[in-house]
Every structure is written in structure tokens, then in C-alpha cells.
Amino acid sequence: QDVKLQFIAATFDAAGNFLKWQSLEGGILQLCPDTQTKLNAAYAFGTTYQQSCKIPLSKILVDFANPIFYDLFLEYNGDSGQQYLWAVPVLNLNLQYSEMFVNQGSNMNNWLLTRRFFLVDALSGKENDLGKLPRVIRIASKITISIRLVPHTQRGTVYPPLLTVAYTDVLVQNPETQSVMVSFSVNYEMNQSEARIQTDIALGVLGGLAVLWSLLKTAGWKRRTGSSIIDLQTVLKFLLFYAGDLANVFFIIAVGTGIYWLVFFKAQQFVSVFLPLPSQEEDFVTYIACAFSLKALQFLQLLVSQLTIDIFFIDWERPKGKVLKAVEGEGITRSAAAPVSIWRTYFIANEWNEIQTVRKINPLFQVLAVLFFLEVVGFSNLALMDSSSSLTRSSESYIAPWSRVLRFGVSAALWLAIAFLQILFFSVLYERFVEDKISQFVDLCCMSNISVFLLSHSCFGYYIHGRSVHGHADTNMEEMNMNLKREAENLCSQRGLVPNTDGQTFQISISRKMRLHYDRIHETLTSKRGPARLLGSSANTFEQSTRAYNTMNKFLNSFIDHVHKEMDYIVKDKLLLERILGMEFMEPIEKSIFYNGKKICDFDVLYYGNETTLLIFDILFFSIVDLASQSFVLAAILTYLQQEIFRCVRNTLGQKNLASKTLVDERFLI
């Protein structure tokens, strides 16, 4: 970054007389005033430089009363150490040939390059009297020095620089109030066609793999819905799967591209690459926009699927003894089974409601940590279009413009690194030594004698076996502590569904017959959407719902206990390939299949089981806002707000679905 481009100019007056040799440092070609340090930064090799301002016409007329012409040269050392001068060609955009602006096209073969140029001509516009103000002045309103890298160079070899100048004619009317916009820039560019080809190849290969992966997902989904017909719904589901997978493809390519330029541009000892120009970043921005749009579609579909699951809490508690109950209208009392408390079910429902949006990372910490490293530590300075890899910049030094590719590369790398460390800390330390809400929920189910039966598809879902090994959970504190002590000392059986095992969480693939039986009871259970308000619902509706609830509870009790031989199930481990592909090879035709689950995190009906999708959506949302606003702070604020909004929506609607499907009144869900 300390290498300077040594430009010198031979200056001439209006009559063509040679005046002197002059270095460009000090702002010779920069009409905008600035500090010496910032003006000289234009010639630091590898630093993209941009400067623009409005200059009063009166100042121009005073400073450039007589035009000065420049012939520009680049000074460099040969192999023997001898100094050479290379004449810098000038591309005058105002040059006309055969009444055509030949230098304004993109075809270099039509260009007419010249050598001499000027900054301000206040002489040619004077009429009759040279002592009076000119009628028109011509100003070099836009000057650009373009430096192009030789392909495949490892030592920073560049083509001769090209100076492009555009002139503006200003009609002098009132110099005190008139002003003119001028700009000066230095651009570094290289041929991006090879990078574009490699990106297209990666996009084609990964896009093809995404199609195959989406087809496998669709096949697994068809198996889980118990349908074998390819209909419109199947096609739509495939497109939704493909949208999510294609979003991942665009995201991988965008992250790879951003980190590639970040590492290879900032870490290079000898110049071998230049950053893409803003006009060359359009494809990259398009990839991010496509990734965000498709990932948003996948995220919304995920929300909808989680908000429409079927769930039921199976209560294993049995009545303790009998009570005397008055018979209405007969004036007599009869003995009946003691009622079983519903509070344990309400308790488990509340706990399930709380863990629905628990994530493997802390969203607020994630956003604040990313913002801290970007703005406080100074990682955002790595996104500047200069060759410096320093995290700090002094207030006196020139601040180069931002590169959108580098901004995404830096922010995405930080998001992924911090998220990885959070997940590592969360799974290795926090969950083990502090609190594991998900595993605690399974323990609570077992202590409450409540199992969770959950269907995310027509014939696929999850089961948490919470049947107490002590027989009863509706007991006092002393007996509860005794039960815990017996369990700690291995004086009772193990908690697992299968005898002598600890397996409590399962992925379940149920038969069509079992699903139809479940639906028959479920229709009665949800016909009035449960007791929306206990006091306001009629006695008949309430009795009907209660009867349906008890029927469902008894049916699922007997199903788990293998009572229904025509709707029995088997317990087995999933094959490794089944786990990798996320599908089941065996179809549950006669018997349902319970697959041993390692942990509840396998459940994709919770935020916890979809951390990758949520994380990528957050990164893309942050990046889209940042690319639009060029503000990491605004991106962080809006990202946290959208996280909270969607979490609130997921909690609220999830709570309503829970109340609807389980007959737990919504007033008890807090």
C-alpha cells in the first residue's frame, strides 16, 4: 500500500511555450480543494479514489485566468534501475470526428487518443476585449485515470494508464452566484470474464444439484403425506423446495465470492487482482437479491407449516381411588373415579409454547456482536477499496469508497463466525452446564406423566414419550422427591418407550389407517375449535369437546400400548442414508414405524430445528438493507426488528394453533 504512482506533467502556456516539469502531487489536476494528504492519496497504488465538489465560477476565473496545457507521463524504473517516462494517452470525450463523438463509444477501435489537455480555458471565450470576462469558459468537469491489470500477472504488472477527460462549457452570466460540478477519480480494473465464467460454472453445477436435492425432498414429502399421485400440490411443493435450495446456492456463491475478494485483494503481497468496479458488481448484487427473495419464500413456507401442525398431549395419569358424586335430578350420590388434574397438561402446554421460538443462537447478542466488530473494532474498514488491511483509519487520511462485494464478504464472514462460536458454546458449554431448555422439556414431560404426539405431515410427525416410570405424577412434594431419588439411584425402570432403554424422542411414520382413525376423533375435537371461552360456551358443546378429548387421549394411550393390533407400530433405528437424505425408505403400510431420535433438535416443527434457514435469512436480510443504505447500524437495527416481529407472529399464531388442536384454553397459555 506504500507504492506511489509517479505521474509528472510537462506544462505549456497558451502560445505553446514550455513552462516546467511538474509532479501531480499536491492536487495539480484536482480542482476540488482538500488537505495535502488526501489529495496525494489519489496516487497510492491500489486505492480507488473519488473526489467531487461544486466550485464557484468566480474562483475558477481568478485561479485559471490563463490556460495551462499538460502532457502527462508516468515515471517508472526499468529492469536495470534506469528511470523511464511513459507518455499517458488522453481520451477526450468531447472530441468530434466527422461530426461524431468517436470517444464516447465502448469500442476501443474507434477511439482517437490525444496527448495534450487542459483544466480550464477562460481565454477562447473572450470576445473583442481580452481584459473583460469571457462569455463562455470550458472546464474539465470530469477527469478519470484508469489503470488496468495485465491478466495472470503475479507482480502487479499494469497496462499504461489512460486519462479520460470530459469538458463542460459554462455560459458566464453572474460569476458570483454561478458554480460548476467537477470530479476527479482514479479507477483500478481487471478483466473479470474469467471470474464470471467460474461463477457461472459453479451456479450451473450447484443449481443442478439443487434440482436433484429438491426432487429427493419432494419424494420424501410425498412419502410422509401418504400420497403417491403427482398432482399440482406436488409440483408447487417441489418449487418451494427448489426455491429454498436455490437460495442456498446463491448464498454459497455470494459468500464465496465476497470472501475470495476480501482475502485475495487485502492479503496480497504483490498485486495480482483488482476489485470489481461498481458496474461489474451488478451480477453479484443480483445473486444476493435472488438469494434473499427465495430464502424469504422458504422462511414463510416454514412458518406456515409450523403454524398448522397437529399436536396432542397424552395424559397417562390414572384416577387415584373414587369419590362420591351427586347425580343431577335424582337427588342421590354415586361413587365415581376421582378426576385427574388438568394442570399438568396446562403446564406442559405452556412449556411447549415457550420453546417454540427458542434458537441455538441468541439473536440480540448475534446482532450486537456483529455490529461491535464492524463499527467498534473496525472490521468495516476492510470493505474500503484500498489495499490497506488495517482495521483503523486516521481522521486525516483519505477514506476510499466502499466495495459492495467486500461489505458483504466482511459482514457475512462475521455473521457466520459469531454464529458458529455461539452454537459451539451453546451446545458444548451452556446446554451442558447451565440450561438446556429443549432437554428439560423432555424431562418435564416425564415428571408430569404427559407424552407429546405431534404430526407435521399427514403420515409423519414426532413423539415424546413422557410416561412416568413411577406410575403417578399428580402427587405431593415429598413423594415427588422420593421418586426423583429412586430414579437417581436406579431403583426403578428406565424412561424409554422400549423397556430397558432411555429413548424418549422419536420420529414417527404412521399408517394410513391410523391417520384416518386419528382424523375421525380429531374432527369432533376441533369442530368448535375447543372451548373458546369456558364460561361462554354451551354445555352441549363443552361436553362434546370434553368427550372427544377423552376419546383421543384413550385412543393414543392404547395405540402407544400396542392395544390395536390392526394399527400397531414397530420401533427401529434410521439408516445413516435415511438421516442424511431426511427421508424414510420404508412405507408404513400395515404397521406404523417409530424411529429412534437422538434429540428433540431433530424436530423441524420448532425454530430450534431450523437454525440454518433462520441464520441464512437473517444474514441476507442484513445484507440487503446494508447494500441499499450503506449503513451497518441501520441494517443491524432492522434485522433485530424483523427477528422480533416474526418471533412475535410465530408465538401468537402458534399459541392459537396449540389451543385449537389440544383443547387447552388460550387463557391458560401465558
Layout of secondary structure:
Elements: E1 6-12, E2 18-23, H1 36-40, E3 49-56, H2 57-63, E4 69-77, E5 83-87, E6 90-92, E7 96-97, E8 100-101, E9 116-118, E10 120-121, E11 136-148, E12 162-171, E13 179-189, H3 193-225, H4 232-266, H5 282-306, E14 310-315, E15 322-327, E16 332-337, H6 343-355, H7 363-377, H8 404-434, H9 437-448, E17 450-455, E18 460-464, H10 477-488, E19 505-509, H11 512-526, H12 539-560, E20 569-572, H13 576-581, E21 592-596, H14 611-629, H15 632-662
Parallel strand pairs: 6-12, 11-13, 20-21
Antiparallel strand pairs: 1-2, 1-4, 3-13, 4-5, 4-9, 7-8, 10-11, 11-12, 14-17, 15-16, 17-18, 18-19, 19-21
Protein name: Meckelin
InterPro entries: Meckelin
Transmembrane segments: 239-264, 364-385, 405-429
Key terms:
670 residues, alpha+beta, six-stranded mixed β-sheet, 21 strands, elongated
Structure description:
- It contains 15 helices and 21 strands.
- With 670 residues, the protein is α+β, with helices and mostly antiparallel strands.
- The chain has a domain at 7-189.
- Helix 4 crosses helix 8 (404-434) and helix 11 runs antiparallel to helix 12 (539-560).
- The radius of gyration is 37 Å and the shape is elongated.
- Residues 529-537 have low confidence and may be disordered.
